[in-house]
Every structure is written in structure tokens, then in C-alpha cells.
Amino acid sequence: MKDDNMQFTLTNNGEGTISLRKFLIEVGVSKRLIARIKQGEGQVRVNQKNEYWDYQLIDGDEVVLTLPEEPDNDAIHASDEPLNIVFEDENWLVVDKPAGMVTVPGPSNEDTTLVNRVKGHLIATGSSSLVPHVITRLDRFTSGLVLLAKHGFAHSLIAAQLSNGQLEKSYLAIVAGDVKSDQGDIKEPIGKKEGEIRRSVMAEGKASETTYKVVTRFPDYTLVDVKLVTGRTHQIRVHFDFIHHALVGDELYDGPMDKGIERQALHAAKLSFEDPFTGKKLAFESELPDDMARLLK
């Protein structure tokens, strides 16, 4: 194998035995990638030995994949602007994003987004892969935790947890009025009319589900803990507007703008997932930023 390849270690933590091929599929390795490895575009070793695909793994066995490096994307510029890094290892990066920072480059900002800054960080730290993969994207004016994969292979492994809900995200939101129910489950389809930024609940929209629990009630608004079952654009903002409790500071969805905050009062406060490389659970928390914390005093 060439020296410019990347190596990844996966640990089998299951009871009993499982074939090498089945183990790789269960942790998220695609059948297409397995086929490419069989054709010579990579290598798989078990406990530093070459083994057949039907080799039976036992608890604690280490599987090492060697894959070609991911080519750099020159269209993404690197930025040396600061990042608030909560966690980093060879596969993952968790960043606490402030409100106002754009997550991914676009026509309005191609140089100083979160992704640009992460690329600059990867270059500065000598990373072998320079393509950041955003796993949990946030709106520009939503603050809090963002998970990024540092290479495409990690992105592919975490995809299953995104779809089955094993990757857990919870938000703190300050919403208008007195939310009467201590907890609730909002199941309403969300869609968008062509040419509009704003989303709406509409019959032809995509199935969407948001759960919440009331944390504290105040005279004019309510602090709620929110979890997304699905992940539609603006989902929390749309669903709370639909139940007549728009987020405080959310001008787009007609939230109250006279409470002392000039952006939607929404913060990605908790994030947890099972690291597919080690089988260990990783969990992170972020404190409320000052502009939201002031409303709760």
C-alpha cells in the first residue's frame, strides 16, 4: 500500500462471533466500499494479520482498514479565524458555534464560515485529510454544538446513527408565551413554497417530529428542552410557530422581538453518539450563551 493512504481502527465489542464482512457492514461500511477493497483499493487486517472475509471475529478484535486519502477540495478556502473546540481526536471534531457564524460556505460567505475555519485548523495541525464533513449543521443564528467528521470514512460510519436516532441532539429554546403542557410531541409535515426562505407546516411537506419538555416558565416566555426525531430545515422554529409559541427573537417566524435578544433563542446544548471506531459513547454539553442566559435571570 502507498504511504499516502489513511488507516482506521475499528474494535469489535460484540458478544459471540461475527464474520469480518458482516461486522464491517454493521458498523456502516458500505458494500460498495467492501467491493472496492476486494478490487485492491484498500486493505483490511485483523489483529495485524490478513484474514478472509468470512473470518470470525471475537470480542476485542481490532480491524484495521487502509484506504486511499480523500482528495482536497480546493473550492473550500482555509481560514485562520478562531474556533471553540470542545473535543477532537483523529476522526471527530466537536465545535461550540456562536450565533451569527455561518456553518458552510455559500454565495454570501465563502471564506470565514465554520467549515473554512475547520479546514484552516486541520492544515495548522497537520491533518492528513483536509475535507471537513459537517454531521450536525446549525442555522446561522442558532448557537451550540456542531459535530464534524474529519474524513469521509467517519462520515459514512456515522450516517446510520443519524438515520436511526442513535445520534442524539437536544436543544434549549426560549419560546413565546406560557406552554401549558409539561411535555409534548409535535408531528406535523414541513415543506417550503418555491422561492421562499420560510418553511411551513403543509400537507404535502415531509414527515417531521419534534418532542419537548418544559424546563422553566417565565411571565412572558417558556424555556423548553427540545429533541429532534427528524431533522428538517428550521424544524424547531416551524413547529413551535405552528403551536403558537414562536421562538423569542425569531423574526422570520414572527417571534417576539422586544425581549432583549436579536436572534432566535435556540441553542444546541447536548450531543451524544456511539463512536463507531471504538464502540464508546461520547457525550458533550454546551452552556447557554450570554444573550439567552440573560433572559432567564
UniProtKB/TrEMBL annotation:
Pfam families, sorted: PseudoU_synth_2 (PF00849)
Gene Ontology biological process terms from the UniProt entry: enzyme-directed rRNA pseudouridine synthesis
The enzyme's E.C. designation: 5.4.99.-
Residues the record marks as active site: 139
Segments forming domain Pseudouridine synthase RsuA/RluA-like: 91-240
Catalytic reaction annotation: a uridine in RNA = a pseudouridine in RNA
Signal peptide start-end: none
EC class: isomerase
InterPro entries tied to this protein: PsdUridine_synth_cat_dom_sf, PsdUridine_synth_RluA-like_CS, PsdUridine_synth_RluC/D, PsdUridine_synth_RsuA/RluA, RluA_PseudoU_synthase
UniProt KW keywords: Isomerase
Gene3D superfamilies, per the entry: Pseudouridine synthase
Role summary: Responsible for synthesis of pseudouridine from uracil.
Name by which UniProt lists this protein: Pseudouridine synthase
